[in-house]
Amino acid sequence: xxQQIGGHLLVECLVAQGVTHVFGVPGESYLAALDGFHAYRExxxxxxxxxxxxxxxxxxxxxxxxxxxxxxxxxxGPGATNASIGIHTAFQDSTPMVVFVGxxxxxxxxxxxxxEVDYRAFFGPSTGGMAKRVERIDDVRRLPEYVARAxxxxxxxxxxxxxxxxxxxxxxxxxxAAPLPRVPDVCYQFDPKSxxxxxxxxxxxxxxxxxxxxxxxxxxAAQALQGFAxxxxxxxxxxxxxxxxxxxxxxxxxxxxxIALNPRLAQRVREADLLLVVGPRLGEMTTGGYTLIQxxxxxxxxxxxxxxxxxxxxxxxxxxxxxxxMPGAAALLAALEPPASVPWRAWTEAAQAxxxxxxxxxxxxGSIDMAAIVATAQQHLPADTVVTNGAGNFATWVHRFWRFHxxxxxxxxxxxxxxxxxxYGVPAGVAAAIGAGRVVFNITGDGDFxxxxxxxxxxxxxxxxxxxxLLNNGMYGTIRMHQEREYPxxxxxxxxAGADFVLLAQGYGYHGVRITRTEEFEPALLAALExxxxxxxxxxxxxxxxxxxxxxxxxxxxxxKRS
Length: 563
Hints:
By secondary structure, the chain is of the alpha/beta class. Strand 6, helix 6 (143-155) and strand 7 form a beta-alpha-beta unit. Helix 13 (370-380) runs parallel beside helix 20 (521-530).
């Protein structure tokens, strides 16, 4: 081994873990690591972002796409606090992520030095919603140990973010240590008796429903789940913003259980006599605020399979709690012998019919038909297109009408924050274009875009191309909707205006176009697919079109009748 500075060893450790891209905003606190990226530039790329929140979302997106930890580099203090939105998203979404924070030098610690923050206090895990583990590397010789442990912690059990603080003097010290081997993925299963208990309970059901989602799905695992569902003739729904877990084109698909839920599917969840939940942790959005599936003891029988034993029983007291990785669980389910016949064939067919009926749009006012626009995009975009969104009512158009191709077909196709973080979709799309090299379709709103739209400049700098469809209704639409529901005709703080999105896109190196009629979308999309650089298509949307099912005025009138 030859001696090198800690910053170079750190980058070598990342290369050993198979990392090809890291995301960040440069800071003087980790200059030695930046020099390491230069030294290893043929093997790993530092993607220079415009704001740490956007960089954190990119790292989260890479973690979702690859199943391996996305990697983020930020500087101390303001850099770390800016990044917290993406770290929180990775925690709530169970996304593997490793965050490196350049820190104050060791001899300045605990003096409130320039930009000093106590990262254990700030990120947890005592904060209960930020990071799985937070550590500071004081000894350069132990750098490989800390990095390997961070990757293992981020990956195993319920995946999530790990934060490592890097004192800047540690990164400049000489060391002759070597990286540790790549942390392997771990496949684990529950015991044979539990599998037979599952079979016995499922065989007694009359109206079963599978809800699939959560982290850790591979194409092979998704294929195994599909085979299990087919053999047992089960209806399968996907959890909130895990809509690509089970193929939406499959004849046994029942829809997604989340925000703006199909009322028929909501009723089906209530009427089910057994829920087989494979992967998701059953958070607030998937459970309708813990009422669609009552907490802590559901009305339905519940079989809950999750990769972390700490999650099982934390909120829901299931009839059967099974701990397994998704590849392990799906392999067991695929080998489970079904009975000669099942009583729920008509139930499964009805669930699929309900899903198909939900694809038929309601008539809404204005010159823009968003359901038709989503259908046009689906018609022309490749099957493996990565669809991204942030948070807002605009996202319900793809949630309801886009038919996600499942991971079983070979690749993940949805990137969206279960944390409800605004500003996610644009940077997530940039990361997908850089890391996956596939077509990226991002739907965003005017408020959502203005959170992180500057990351289009990152896309242009790094040769990434995305197609951004921006719905501009001049307001924070979701909040305005809630205002009209709770305080009708008393709008406050929700109007936004003043941005020329076409000019903004052009300033970032994108092509920009504004459309006001449905028929203008198809030629704009086809031109975007041919263009070497990215495209932003601004759609001027009538503020009345607030949901996929109704208008803002209708919500106001209903609220006034109640008051």
